[in-house]
Amino acid sequence: MEDTAWTALEQKCLSCRQCRLAERRTHVVFGVGPRDAEVLCIGEGPGEHEDLQGEPFVGRGGQLLDEMLEVIDLDRRRNVYIANIVKCRPPGNRDPLPDEQDACIGYLRAQVGLIRPKIILCLGRIAAMKIIRPDFRITREHGLWFERAGVHMMALYHPAAVLRDPGKRPETFVDLMKVRERIREICNHTY
Ligand code: URA
Fold it and tell me: What is each CA distance from 75 to 32, 83, 91, 108, 169, in whole angstroms?
C-alpha cells in the first residue's frame, strides 16, 4: 500500500509542470534515502550537480553534508532521507521564489506523510522559513529545537554556507551533537 503511494507520488512529481522551474530542468530531484528513515533532512533546491544527476546534495555541499551526517552515524544509504523544498533547479542557483515553493511543497508534505520522520533537520534559512516559521532567523535560531505534532525540528546552517564560512563549523558541530543526543532519546534504531 505504502509502496503504491510512493510510486504514484514519485511518478506525479517526475512529470510535474506546475511551475516555471520545469522548463529548464534536466532531472526532477525527488529525494534519496530509506523510506522508513527516522530522520529527514530538507534542503532548499537542487543545484547544477543535483539537476544533472537527479539526486539531492551530490556537489561539494553534498560531500560536506555527508561528512556532517557521518559524525552522528547518519548515512543516506542506511538511515536518513534527504529531500528539498523545490524539486527542480532554480536557474543560476538563485533562491526558489515563493510561488515555486508553494507549487512544490505538496510533494514534500506527501513525502513527510509517508516517511513519518521523528526528526526533521532543515538545512539553511529557506528550508527553515518554509518548514519551521516564516520569520525564522538562521543565525539566531540554528541549533534550537521546535516541536510540531510530535515531530522534533531543528535548523542547521546550510552546508554551502559552512563551506563559504568555515567559522560556522564549530557551531554546526555543536548542533550536530544536539541532534545525536535527541536521536538517542527518541529514535528506535541503534545509530
Ligand atoms: N543545496 C540544496 O539545498 N539542495 C541540494 O540538493 C543541493 C544543494
Answer: 11, 14, 29, 20, 20
**C-beta of 111 in contact with ligand 1 (< 6 A):** no
| 128 closest CA partner among 44, 32, 33, 39 | 44
DSSP category for residue 153: E
- Closest ligand 1 atom to Cα of 127: 3
Please give the pLDDT value at position 2.
81
Confidence at 21, pLDDT banded by 50, 70, 90: very high
Residue 1, pLDDT score: 65
Judge contact between 115 and 36, C-beta under 8 A.
yes
Q: Rounded to the nearest whole angstrom, what is the distance from the C-alpha of residue 1 to the centroid of ligand 1?
A: 30
Q: What is the CB neighbour count within 10 angstroms for residue 167?
A: 8
| Residue-wise pLDDT tens digits, 63-106 | 999 999 999 999 999 999 999 999 999 999 899 999 999 999 99
pTM of the model: 0.97
The mean predicted confidence, pLDDT, of the chain is 97
- Residue with CA nearest ligand 1 atom 6: 56
**Domains delineated in the chain:** 2-186 (3.40.470.10)
Is 83 within 8 Å of 108 (Cβ atoms)? yes
Q: What is the C-alpha separation between 141 and 132, in angstroms, rounded? A: 11
Q: What is the pLDDT of residue 188?
A: 87
